[in-house]
Amino acid sequence: MQRRHRLSRSRDFDDVYRHGTSASTRYLVLHWFPRETDASGDPRLGLAVPRSIGSAVVRNRMKRQLREAWRRLLPEIPAGHDYVLVARPGIVEPVAARGQDWLVGEVASALEKVRS
Asked: Is pTM beyond 0.85 here?
């Protein structure tokens, strides 16, 4: 996933949390907020993987896997929005057991709630 598709400043995260809406699944929470300045631009993603997920190695692996799932779904994601994807505790075991395709499906189901 390219840098232009990422949220990096805490101000951007705060805008999404404060003014956006959210949808959740068992293992993920997706917050989103429409950008006013760049309504037709590429969607941007921020990741929040809390310490309760595991050690730094486990958290970084989860971030890489979430970025890859997001990259695979990028053509289907509505443009002009900022998103923050929050991993919930317990996601590591199902991803390890079921694989990357399952994680893509989980992210896709959270995105379905955005569209509806």
From this structure: yes
Q: C-alpha 15: how far from its chain's center?
A: 15
**Cα gap 3→60, rounded to integer Å:** 17
Residue 98, domain extent: 3-110
User: Where is pLDDT greater, at 115 or 64?
Assistant: 64
Number of domains in the chain: 1
In 3-state terms, what secondary structure has residue 99?
coil
Collapsing DSSP to helix, strand or coil, 34 comes out as strand
CATH of the domain at 87: 3.30.230.10
CA distances from 36 to 47, 54, 60, 81 (A): 21, 36, 31, 9
